[in-house]
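Today's session is about reading a structure prediction critically. Students often jump straight to the picture, but the first step is always the sequence itself: look for stretches that repeat, for charged clusters, for runs of hydrophobic residues. Only then move on to the predicted structure, which in these notes is written as discrete structure tokens rather than atom positions. Here is the chain we will use throughout the hour.
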Amino acid sequence: MDSFMETMEQDTSGVLGHLMALERGGMGRQKQHDSQRSETLKARAVTLRAKRDQLKHHTDVVKTLKDKIVKGLPLRDEDAAADGFVELQKSLLTAWRMQLKDLQRAHHLIGNFAPVKSHRAHCHCRSIVPSLSGGYDLVECKDGKSACVSFHTAFEGVRLETYSVELDLTRAVQISRHNVPPSFPLESLAKRTLQKDLKAFLQTLSQNLNALAARRRQVCLLKELVGSVEVMESNQLCSVLVLMCTAQSEAPKAVLCTLEYGDLAQCLPTRVSIECEDKVLSGSPQWKKNQSLLLESPAHTALLTMRRMGSIS
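Below is the predicted structure for this chain, in token form.
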């Protein structure tokens, strides 16, 4: 019995020893595999960090170049030679072209075209021009390197001036040529919105040019009024208009009406003041009503209404 147990212990220890040896061998290979995998991951992490730093540097360079191009700042030789400069310039040009094409397509799709009369007295034909809701046309030129925008203006169904602005797209969206009046704040408007939002710039410029043409047209119509209305003062932007009227009373009295157009995008004044040596007259309910009329209606229309009401002669 004792010899049988000894034999079993010897066999068991041999099997266990073999198993333990196999386990130790497997653990060793696992450790070696884990070590190799760890080294591979470390090397990959180093490579990825290097690529990350390279991409970060490239992104910073591209961002700096884009800011310079958009702001129209001069570029140095090393800027033009930087990686990605040509691709950036091409992508910006493509983006501006696509935006202009989208604006042109949308403009022609939603712009309502209304028949308006020519302002020339001898011309009785009717022309088709864009309505006030779609006051400009856009055409690509110079193989897409620039775009010409024509701003049509009209007032009370009468076609007025057309202004043109050429936009240079070779580096950044910049105004290269235009026939907008020198007194018009085109440069300040471009600085505020041209680079940030091209659509907003075109819409704002169209609205302001149309309002300018409408105010100028009102001055012309006022000068044509026969009677006791005289245009005393008007600046180039027609942002201030001073009228001298003769009030109907027992003794004719001069009334000075000053119209101030604080919002250049509108053709109606934002402030109207009435002055007269007769303070009772200028402060009367009738002239308070006339003041409101000048605020709510075009100047020539308001004065014709005041004449029909008997306020002025």
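Discussion point for the tutorial: Strands lie at 113-118, 126-130, 136-141, 146-155, 158-168, 174-178, 229-234, 240-247, 253-260, 271-275.
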